[in-house]
Amino acid sequence: MTYDETTLAQLTEDAAAIIARYPVKRSALLPMLHLVQSVDGFVSPDGIQFCAEQLDLTAAEVSAVATFYTQYKRRPNGEYQVGVCTNTLCAVMGGDRIWDELSEHVGVGHDETTEDGKITLERLECNAACDYAPVMMVNWEFFDNQTPESAKQVVDDLRAGKDVAPSRGPAKVCGFKEVSRVLAGFEDGRADEDQGAGAATLAGLETAKGQGWKEGSK
Amino acid sequence: MTDLVPVLSATWGAEKSWSLDTYTEAGGYAPLKKALGMEPGDIIQAVKDSGLRGRGGAGFPTGMKWGFLPPDDGGPRYLVVNADESEPGTCKDIPTMMSAPHQLIEGVAITSFAIGCNHAFIYLRGEVVHVYRRLLQAVREAYEAGHLGKDIHGSGFDLDVTVHAGAGAYICGEETALLDSLEGRRGQPRLKPPFPAVAGLYARPTVVNNVESVASVPAIVDRGVEWFTAMGTERSKGMGLFSLSGHVTRPGQYEAPLGITLRELLEMAGGIREGHELKFWTPGGSSTPIFTQDHLDTPLDYESVGAAGSMLGTRALQIFDETTCVVRAVTRWTEFYKHESCGKCTPCREGTYWLTQILKRVEGGRGTEADIQQLLDTCDSIAGRSFCALGDGATSSIISSVKLFREEYEAHVEQGGCPFDHSAAALFDYSETPATEEAHA
């Protein structure tokens, strides 16, 4: 492994915190792979070796798991993972067009990264926000009701280094490594940040009020 | 007209709805204290009596699932919450956890107490980072308030909760694949039996329940079995979140008694988008056979939807109007199943590849009449012959759409291409550039 002393010490401390959450050590593997991505920006050979040593697994066993899941990247990832949902519902509502225009605009295809290392594009499967179709995810934050123009604007702003807020979520989209650290189970203090619940989330509640239901009633 | 009944969604509009303070002000965690004063067996009986059925798709009675656990042998037993919401069209658990995570945490605490579990897990899909933030914070808040941890509210009951993020794999929504994934392995389904109740997480007795099922438990404990059974139909009791998406004026989450109809829901949601009419819809996600206008009055409960040839599933009502090409829709779903097939069993792994190739050929206008029959034959080799329900689900939209819209498949063959203007189906204006081949491989 080529980690310097400080990095390795931090990784080891974090790994111990993760392992402590589970009765059986191997359960820590998925969060630890997120942790590796938070340091290296992808699941690196060093990271695989580190997980293997911490969990008494072989590197092959760790690789076998890492290659199964789409969120684990085998090559250095862009700072922002931009996914356009092209599963049926979003695709039909315009996701296909958004993908076509965005991909052409950015100049990379599925699972490819721009030369500046900023953007990795992905054709996304359903991300459980269908009532906000067409949906785009940036580092796993929700960008709802997108159009080709809005999607391109988001990506342009990200590449220009501007802060970009999702439709629902924190005040700004964090970088791939920061988000990977959260996915390893470490809080980043942004849970209270909010852009509102969203119209579709509250659509039924609004209708219920019109039917005479009162907030706070049972 | 059936009225909506906000229960899980009741506090979603409140200021900082996700915080412990807001949840407690609305009466939260009182049900936990009540439950801790009850006999665990009585809680299980109440949930059985309520008729609550699994809200994750399969509809198995929740209380009965709890009751399957073998008698206490002194070793650990686990509750694992399935928060891997990934079925296309399904978008109910994510807003639940984002807006009211404590509802789930309280449900976890009560359920764990009832089944004798001291360490529960919430397996959240990894692609929703803000939901994970909210859950992590909610669990921490609950520990700090003494709702989790050692000797909860002086009851002698201990409970730890771990919120675990997955890493992108639809198959992990299958309960045994989820358990393998939670054990740090590739998410592949296990052979059943043994069922998780007997040998689940770490081969110990385990209950796996969906988010909405578990989140419904505090209200049942609080308001009673009769309140719950007064809602719904004879064998489908209670309320559920109905998620409307697609070509509908006001898409979103509508919490209603089971048995409500799409006609009623559409009326509340402002109808199909203006100037258009309903063509087809899924009652419960992409793994459930599609419905048409003929099913507008089918009560959306387990029995009625089943009798009409589909499944209530996750109540993910994906609505498509007449501008939508059904072949395009089905092809894309099939590509999804191909992508998500875990590869463990041959019918699903190979079958979904074949189906995708045939469908793309037909959609692209290069198919033949024989291809349509080949689709059905291939489905026949998958449905009922694959290791888990993913394979079955992959065939649902194909079989049902060929049955209901065969002429549309034939039109693709006869015209040598898709007869639809895809831009007409989009929710924003654009004109189609010269017929480009779909960009995806």
TrEMBL record, chain A:
Q: Which cofactor does it need?
A: [2Fe-2S] cluster
Question: Mind telling me which InterPro entries this protein's record contains?
Answer: NuoE-like, NuoE_dom, NuoE_N, Thioredoxin-like_sf
> Where does this protein hold [2Fe-2S] cluster?
85, 90, 126, 130
Q: Which Gene3D superfamilies match?
A: Glutaredoxin, NADH-quinone oxidoreductase subunit E
Query: What keywords are annotated for this sequence in UniProt?
Result: 2Fe-2S, Iron, Iron-sulfur, Metal-binding
Q: Name one GO molecular function term.
A: NADH dehydrogenase activity
How the cofactor is bound: the record states: Binds 1 [2Fe-2S] cluster.
The family assignment reads: Belongs to the complex I 24 kDa subunit family.
Protein name, as recorded:
NADH dehydrogenase subunit E
Species name: Demequina mangrovi
From TrEMBL, chain B:
* Top-rank lineage group of the source organism: Bacteria
One GO-annotated biological process of the protein: cellular respiration
**What catalytic activity does the UniProt entry give for this protein?**
a quinone + NADH + 5 H(+)(in) = a quinol + NAD(+) + 4 H(+)(out)
Q: Which Gene3D superfamilies match?
A: 3.10.20.600, 6.10.250.1450, NADH-ubiquinone oxidoreductase 51kDa subunit, NADH-ubiquinone oxidoreductase 51kDa subunit, iron-sulphur binding domain
Q: What is its EC number?
A: 7.1.1.-
Keyword annotations for this protein?
4Fe-4S, Flavoprotein, FMN, Iron, Iron-sulfur, Metal-binding, NAD, Quinone, Translocase
Which PROSITE patterns is this protein grouped with?
Answer: COMPLEX1_51K_1, COMPLEX1_51K_2
**Which Pfam family, giving just one, matches this sequence?**
Complex1_51K
Q: Which cofactor does it need?
A: [4Fe-4S] cluster; FMN
Q: Where does the NADH-ubiquinone oxidoreductase 51kDa subunit iron-sulphur binding domain start and stop, copy by copy?
A: 327-372
> One MF term from GO for this chain?
FMN binding
Name the protein family. Belongs to the complex I 51 kDa subunit family.
Question: What is the recorded function of this protein according to its Swiss-Prot or TrEMBL entry?
Answer: NDH-1 shuttles electrons from NADH, via FMN and iron-sulfur (Fe-S) centers, to quinones in the respiratory chain.
- The identity of this protein, by name, is NADH-quinone oxidoreductase subunit F
- Which species? Demequina mangrovi
Q: What is the lineage of its organism?
A: Bacteria, Bacillati, Actinomycetota, Actinomycetes, Micrococcales
